[in-house]
Amino acid sequence: MRAFTAAAAGLAAALLLVLTITAIGAPDGTTSPKPLRTTVPAHP
């Protein structure tokens, strides 16, 4: 019974966290039009 109660409490906490993040929403802003460099350019 303790395991069931602990699992239910953990599930409720996770659900509350997800709902809180969903309610806050994504931050406002724009993405950069310039591409990011992910590798070092090769030297000829």
Automatic annotation (TrEMBL):
What protein name does the entry list?
A: SPW_0924 family protein
Q: Which InterPro entries match?
A: SPW_0924-like
Region described as Disordered? 25-44
Q: Which domain of life is it from?
A: Bacteria
